[in-house]
Design goal:
- The protein has a single domain, classed as Beta Barrel (Lipocalin).
- The protein has no helices and 18 strands.
- It has a twelve-stranded antiparallel beta barrel with strand order 1-2-3-5-6-9-10-11-13-16-17-18.
- The protein starts with 35 loop residues before the first strand and ends with a strand.
- The relative contact order is 0.19.
């Protein structure tokens, strides 16, 4: 297997790992059959408006408990992740992904930034196989498709014990989760003429950290429709679709009934490809949050951007 070493300069900071500890963002491109190195940035904004008694007054992720500092205040959190990514394409079938995240999370109370937490996150390695031959000739020469399944491991490298002014930060704000996690992925891409669709599904089984705390297992699915056209050597791909995230209850010595739930997003974006380079941007607007309990912050939006080089 050919070895790829990635060395890139950082821009600013995955999915939240959480609240991006919840899911992993796996991109799909027309160049999935080639080696790739890239840099990806993700941001998630979460917000809550709390009553004087500490209950969330907005439609009800990552529970923060009944924190007295939140009582009667608006709380906003930004989860920022900058990922260095590498992909090794072995033959027509095997794909190996390496994801190294750098995390920078902030918390604001009443519009004043009160917490800033950053550091290297939890790396992920994924091994997958393409079940459909991407180079197979079909009866319709304008039709092509790819179907890929895989599994991976998230390594507990990121810190979980960062303190500010002697206060231990909430686990959601920490760069890591402290647990070994297993990830399963399914990716499907098809194109008929200039139109097509991309589906990405992943499920994460979360282990326990040293404090015997584990995030609830999470399900994440994205479906995008796209139109692909080309001007000289520049390929344009406007996309539109939907995303759903579903998380089970967190657990420690007990089941935490104020964690987990389901969130739906609608999204739009643009992807550009020029020779070996790919650039994409995507905005995901939350349209439904159905979370357990009364103290969780709700999703407002997610932003995904990236730059990759394939060879």
């Amino acid at each position: 297997m050919k070895l790829i070493t990635t060395a890139l300069l950082c821009w600013s900071s995955i999915l939240a790992f959480c609240c991006d500890n919840c899911n992993v963002y796996i991109n799909i491109t027309p160049n999935d059959n080639r080696h790739e190195i890239g840099i990806y940035y993700r941001q998630r904004q979460m917000m809550g408006l709390y009553s004087p008694f500490g209950q969330q007054m907005m439609t009800k992720h990552a529970a923060h408990g009944n924190n007295p500092k939140f009582w009667g205040n608006q709380v906003t959190e930004h989860y920022n992740t900058l990922e260095l990514r590498g992909k090794i394409a072995e033959g027509d079938r095997l794909r190996t992904y390496l994801i190294i995240p750098f995390v920078y999370n902030t918390q604001e109370i009443k519009g004043v930034e009160s917490k800033q937490v950053g550091g290297i996150g939890d790396p992920v390695v994924i091994q997958s196989v393409q079940l459909f031959d991407p180079f197979k000739a079909y009866n319709n020469p304008n039709f092509t498709q790819r179907f890929e399944i895989g599994a991976g491991i998230k390594f507990p490298v990121g810190k979980t014990d960062i303190t500010i002014n002697e206060e231990l930060m909430n686990l959601d704000l920490q760069p890591g989760s402290g647990s070994w996690d297993i990830l399963g992925i399914v990716k499907y891409w098809m194109k008929l003429g200039n139109f097509g669709s991309m589906m990405n599904v992943n499920y994460k089984w979360n282990g326990q950290n040293k404090d015997r705390y584990s995030y609830g297992n999470t399900f994440n699915a994205t479906l995008n429709l796209f139109y692909q056209t080309k001007i000289n050597e520049l390929t344009f791909m406007p996309i539109a679709g939907a995303n759903v995230e579903k998380a089970a209850f967190d657990e420690s010595t007990e089941i935490h009934k104020d964690t987990g739930g389901t969130s739906w997003f609608i999204q739009g974006g643009l992807r550009l490809y020029y020779k070996g380079f790919g650039l994409f941007g995507e905005y995901q607007k939350s349209v439904s949050n159905s979370f357990n309990g009364y103290t969780q912050l709700i999703n407002k939006h997610k932003i995904n951007v990236g730059l990759a080089y394939t060879f």
